[in-house]
């Protein structure tokens, strides 16, 4: 998606296909296919960058479907099988020309275009023509900026108390030679982007073309003709608005201005200095760039870089965009629980994508999941250990349980009968209602087994008796007694009771007790006689 967007973005700028392919790091034929597919989808050059929506990019990718993900066709594989022979033809003292090598391959039945043979000879066989060194024009002001990493030395890290190796990402303006130095412990994409953000703030503008070395975070395939840029770097370039023209491997002459600056920064700024920490070193490096390095008389231009920059170059720079939210790009698999894991957080995906691999782009706000250019799902970014689940992504029969949706569970029970719904609500009337959800699911299981009618009658009878237990409902249905009102125990004193006695018997018993007391020499008090 990022590669297609970069091609179309450059095409909308009005440049030719050759320049479009060079900016995006793709073959010109590939760029032509992307542009043609976008035109078939309704994109015109009069449209602005806002027309490059995710839906349009998805249509283009779906229409093109590149069949060469590694950047090479079948002809390259045929040349790989004959690499030793080609290398022998090119390594002899009287080396053959690539034209002759192409002819010999054709005679041997290996029909490959000449341009492919030449690129193979350069990439795989070390073929190169000896050329003299010439000075290249500086170009227009505000267009080119060369960047390169260089090792500086060691600085004590206050957190660990140990000395750590420090690298300098050096930015050198191609026209004025004004420079900026960004110090970092690592050479990751985040470190490169952080250095670029600091450089744009220092220059108060953005250069139109960045010429980097073959940094791993920037270049994934360092091909001399068609280098492949990383997805993260292309995404950042789209955000800022610059193009990338990478230098070739082991070709310092492709970025000579920043190469000469490395020695100057190491010897004039870093050597012999003592820094409290990395922040102190960075503050002093920024001041050094603005004063010492910026005000010196440059040996080539015979002028002060900062003066040339302020006068000729700064007005030509692109405006500084909003701060870039550095994303991460990963490839994830949709697991059986309908979720993918991105940065140790879980995000739900529709059931149709189970078992498939998706491309994830995660910044500080959103996580976008796509499949072959098609946007599948968007979630708000969650912290590590968090989870974002859309109930619509889960099967309907499992969504309520997974989300602990008590309202939906009660509504499902009420759809089978009013008393069933009331009974389910009574079952969930608990300080921890989700612990009683299994009882409701068992009640729904009884509905599937015996039908809603008998369960409705059993729930009505149980509610009348104020008995809330699914086991009782199951017993009633098993014995088919859901419509029979059970016999209740008779109240005490009822004439129909089995052990009830006539009240007169108690009076006779009382007289017998009194007679017994008198015969025993005991007499009753007047109060006792009155009571009797």
Summarize this structure as a short list of keywords or feature phrases.
4-stranded antiparallel beta sheet; 14 strands; Nucleotidyltransferase, domain 5; 5-stranded mixed beta sheet; elongated; 5 domains; disordered C terminus; 44% helix; 21 helices; 532 residues; alpha+beta
Describe the structure in brief:
The protein has 532 residues and is an alpha+beta fold.
Protein topology:
Layout (H helix, E strand, L loop, with lengths): L1 H11 L4 H8 L3 H13 L13 H11 L9 H8 L1 H9 L6 H10 L6 H11 L19 E13 L6 E11 L5 E6 L4 H15 L5 E3 L7 E3 L6 E2 L1 H10 L2 E2 L11 H15 L7 H18 L9 H9 L14 E6 L5 E4 L2 E4 L8 E6 L3 E6 L2 E7 L6 E2 L7 H8 L2 H9 L3 H10 L9 H14 L1 H13 L5 H10 L23 H17 L6 H6 L1
Parallel strand pairs: 1-4, 4-7, 10-14
Antiparallel strand pairs: 1-2, 2-3, 5-6, 8-11, 9-10, 11-12, 12-13
State the helical fraction. 40-55%
CATH topology of the largest domain: Nucleotidyltransferase, domain 5
**Beta-strand residue percentage:** 5-15%
**Rg estimate, integer Å:** 42 Å
Computed structural class: alpha+beta
Which architecture of the largest domain per CATH?
2-Layer Sandwich
